[in-house]
Specification:
About 40% of the residues lie in helices and about 15% in strands. The chain is built from 9 helices and 9 strands. The strands form 2 sheets. A 7-stranded parallel β-sheet has the order 3-2-1-4-5-6-9, sandwiched between helices. Strand 1, helix 1 and strand 2 form a beta-alpha-beta unit. Helix 1 packs across helix 9, helix 3 packs parallel to helix 5 and helix 4 packs parallel to helix 6. The radius of gyration is 17 Å and the shape is globular.
Length: about 240
């Protein structure tokens, strides 16, 4: 299935590595003008060299006001992918206020902040739009730390609530919930045979997702082919959450 996004403008947060980078690449291949937002300038510069047509934006998403200011300046966005996030493995009993606030300031708050900016402009121009939030299978099953899983569960609820409120404006919001994804960052432990075997034992398909598995579903949800899909949380986990 191919997609034609020529004339569309897309914003991808956390767009320099892993899932986010793959989504940027695939959107660009489909003809969209892509804006990739990231925190590390060096990673953004590398992405720009690899994909010259991409517009790069350097901002710390935990800074609400600065993020709002920067995103407001890039004009109307047709497609938004809220992908940026950090991982926290702190066990219950050792969670601090600082660790809690740090995770939510990156994984949850920017979804509301950036989406509000994007949606405001779509409403003003009476244009349809599509938003995909990158959640996690950990929102559906116990996986990782409590604050990480609870943050992802909150993303799912935000997705559903936004879908109800914004549906009348023809703005669709969905989330995808990846399981274990093989990326440059995760290969350090997934390449270990013992760890890999243990994690695969929880996945009925007995393999991990790759970044393309996630990106292709995101493209579909952004496209008009998914025009009646709104407010869903879609696991991409090889059946792990079905257990």
């Amino acid at each position: 299935m191919s997609y034609e996004f020529k004339g569309k403008r897309a914003l991808v947060t956390g767009g320099t590595r892993g899932i986010g980078k793959e989504i940027v690449k695939q959107l660009t291949k489909c003809g969209a003008q892509v804006y990739a937002l990231g925190k590390v300038k060096k990673n953004l510069d590398v992405l720009k060299v690899e994909i010259p047509s991409v517009e790069i934006i350097c901002v710390d998403l935990s800074d609400w006001k600065k993020t709002e200011e920067v995103v407001s300046k890039i004009g109307t966005i047709d497609f938004l992918v809220n992908n940026a996030g950090i991982v926290d493995t702190i066990p219950f009993g050792e969670i601090t206020e600082e660790s809690f606030d740090n995770l939510y300031s990156v994984n949850v708050k920017p979804i509301i902040n950036i989406s509000q900016v994007v949606v405001k402009k779509l409403k003003q121009e009476k244009k349809p739009g599509a938003i995909v939030n990158i959640s996690s299978v950990s929102s559906l099953i116990h996986l990782g730390s409590i604050i990480y899983s609870s943050g992802k569960a909150e993303i799912d609820k935000i997705t559903k609530s936004m879908a109800v409120e914004l549906g009348p404006h023809k703005i669709r919001i969905n989330s995808v919930n990846p399981g274990v994804v093989y990326t440059e960052m995760s290969k350090s432990y997934l390449d270990d045979p013992k760890t890999s075997s243990m994690l695969k034992s929880f996945v009925p398909l007995q393999e991990f997702c790759n970044t393309e598995d996630i990106a292709y579903v995101v493209l579909f949800l952004l496209s008009d082919k998914a025009r009646m899909i709104n407010g869903i949380t879609l696991p991409i986990d090889g059946g792990q959450s079905a257990r």
